[in-house]
Specification:
This protein is of the alpha/beta class and about 600 residues long. It has helices spanning about 1-15, 25-60, 65-110, 115-125, 130-170, 185-205, 210-235, 235-240, 245-295, 300-320, 320-325, 325-355, 410-415, 450-455, 465-475, 490, 495-510, 525-540; strands at about 175, 180, 360-365, 370-380, 385-395, 400, 425-430, 435-440, 445-450, 485, 515, 545, 560, 565, 570, 575-580.
Length: about 600
């Protein structure tokens, strides 16, 4: 019972915001229409139940006029039923897509807000494969919540409607056992209730493991799909290493989890289906067994028996809603659990970013320096990585950051960018300053080359001539004519070409502070020198901070900062070493 309450509370938390959103009026109107039509369908079923009595009595009495009249009434009721069913489906689907659109937009906004997606990965949260959460799980949640909710409401209303009918029929068709008549008020209702309780209890006992099995199945499927994508994205390296055999074994192992869990679902579903199918088939004959003695004792006519059987079936089905939808309910609860985990992971990422125990990135007025004060950068598990008691990155200078691999140089850049919250201390960034981080492997979205280069700006922000000029300036004239071509550029271009385009992006955006994290490591030294000269020429007022291991980089920078081991961490010195610039690289 506590699990049911918990699930319903989570469902309310996930579902209710849509009906309070900017689309609430359309959502509420569509929901009201769907519910109204469902209630109308229940009314038609009540009328059809009464029709059963009249129709079969006409057959028993061989009343031709009555027969023809009832055929006409049935045709009219069936026409209304079909029309209402069609429009209910249409409006239900309309509500589904509007609800899904709002939820998807909301989840995308929260997931991509302020680097939440990145922190969620660092935290190793339970929301694995967020792509599946936002696509498959949102779709299933909306669809199944509506279907289950409307179905439950229909069952409640049907039960209330037909219990009255069935209770009245219990008095007109009293129970007969071995030729003796017993007056038991509402015995047909009690029979339906006992039958449904029996079925519900056994269904829960047999099928309860399906909830966790469905959860695991979705997780294993998503994990297998994710690793297939990884192989596709890294196909060149796998081919060069001749790693096909290893990948096949690894993927087979991942798929083995899918298959193993599926067999467990099959076994459990077989048992559940065997019971529910038997339960449903027995439900067809059970009301006739109860009421047939009264019929053969001439207490009721054929129409009364058929009406009783129909009413009993409606009551029994309403009481057995849990049995008939158990498989869907199990899948739905798994979907609810996954979306709950996704929302919880987003909130954890937000809490980490805003925690008083995290690194604070603050705007500083009246200074062009980036100021690191009492800074201690930690790994997500709390291990100290980099510290800086009082360190400034001088504005309008070129600074080279060096240190052994694993010293935390890239993590230092992430902290300055504001996406690494683990640690303490403060980082002062000049107010309204523009920063750009260029990693060793730049990111280019799938689309036109122009859109990939100007990212994250919209393609219209820069003219094609501007983009073509910077592409040629960074040494890629062959790409200047391909700006409108669509491709997966991270796969189409070599890493050296990607690094050149990354610098072209910086030339377009002209940030005040440019951080280069081994952003030219795949280029030869001559090309690297030419590009640094280009940055000096095109971005004369920019503060450039580079991470690199080549000694030749020193000639392009005015200051050198080395991370050195200090106990259990690496540390930035309070003062940085001055580097003698190249003869043709004047101090700024």
């Amino acid at each position: 019972m506590n699990n049911i309450r918990s699930t319903l509370a989570i469902v309310w938390r996930i579902a209710a915001p849509y009906f309070r959103s900017e689309d609430r009026f359309a959502g509420r109107l569509l929901l009201a229409a769907v519910i109204s039509i469902e209630l109308s369908l229940v009314l038609i079923n009540v009328l059809l139940n009464q029709w059963n009595n009249r129709f079969y009595n006409a057959l028993q009495e061989k009343n031709w006029d009555g027969f023809v009249t009832e055929i006409g009434i049935f045709s009219l009721l069936a026409t209304f039923y079909i029309a209402l069913s069609v429009y209910q489906l249409y409006l239900n689907q309309w509500l589904q897509i509007r609800w899904r659109l709002w939820m998807t937009s909301t989840y995308l906004g929260e997931w991509l807000h302020d680097a939440n997606h990145y922190r969620m990965q660092l935290l190793g949260d339970a929301a694995d494969n967020p792509d599946q959460r936002i696509t498959d799980d949102v779709k299933l949640f909306v669809e199944q919540t509506l279907n289950i909710g409307v179905g439950l409401l229909s069952s409640i209303v049907t039960l209330a409607s037909f219990v009255v009918i069935l209770w009245g029929l219990s008095s007109t068709a009293p129970m007969h056992i071995l030729g003796r008549e017993f007056e038991i008020p509402g015995y047909l209702v009690w029979g339906a209730l006992i039958y449904a309780i029996f079925g519900t209890a056994l269904t829960q006992w047999i099928g309860s493991p399906l909830v966790s099995l469905d959860f695991q199945q979705q997780r294993f499927e998503a994990d297998f799909r994710f690793n297939l994508v990884r192989v596709r994205e890294n196909s060149e390296q796998i081919a060069l290493l001749q790693g096909e055999t290893a990948e096949r074994q690894r993927l087979s192992g991942r798929f083995g989890r899918v298959v193993g869990n599926w067999y467990r679902i099959m076994w459990r579903t077989k048992r559940l289906t065997a019971f529910t199918a038997s339960y449903s088939q027995a439900a067809v004959i059970f009301p006739y067994i109860l009421v047939a003695p009264a019929y053969f004792a001439n207490k009721i006519q054929l129409g009364g028996m058929m009406q009783t059987a129909s009413a009993f079936s409606s009551v029994q089905q309403s009481l057995s809603f849990f049995v008939s939808t158990y498989r869907t309910l199990a899948e739905w609860r798994a979907v609810v659990a996954r979306l709950d985990g996704f929302e919880t992971a987003i909130k954890k990422a937000e809490v980490v970013a805003s925690s008083t125990d995290s690194i604070e990135v603050v705007p500083s007025a009246g200074s062009r320096n980036i100021e690191l004060k009492q800074l201690l950068i930690r790994l997500p598990n709390g291990t100290p990585l980099v510290s800086a008691q009082s360190f400034n990155i001088q504005g309008n200078e070129r600074t080279l950051v060096t240190g052994p691999s694993g010293a935390g140089k890239s993590t230092l850049f992430r902290a300055i960018a504001g996406i690494w919250p683990f640690g303490s201390g403060s980082i002062g960034i000049p107010a309204k300053a523009t920063l750009m981080m260029l990693p060793q492997r730049p990111y280019f979205p799938v689309g036109s080359l122009k859109a990939a280069i100007v990212y994250p700006a919209e393609p219209e922000v820069f003219s094609s001539d501007q983009v073509a000029d910077v592409v040629m300036a960074v040494g890629l004239p062959q790409l200047a004519s391909k700006l409108e071509e669509d491709a997966h550029w991270n796969r189409m271009l070599s890493l050296g070409e990607q690094q050149r385009l990354g610098l072209a992006r910086a030339l377009l955006h002209q940030p005040q502070y440019l951080f280069l994290d081994e952003a030219t490591a795949s280029l030869d030294e001559a090309s690297e020198e030419a590009l640094y000269r280009l940055l000096e020429k095109k971005l004369p007022a920019a503060t450039i901070i580079s991470i690199g291991h080549r000694s030749t980089l020193q000639s392009f920078h005015q200051r050198k900062v080395a991370l050195t081991r200090d106990g259990d961490r690496f540390a930035l010195p309070n003062r940085s070493e001055a580097v003698k610039p190249a003869s043709d690289a004047p101090l700024v």
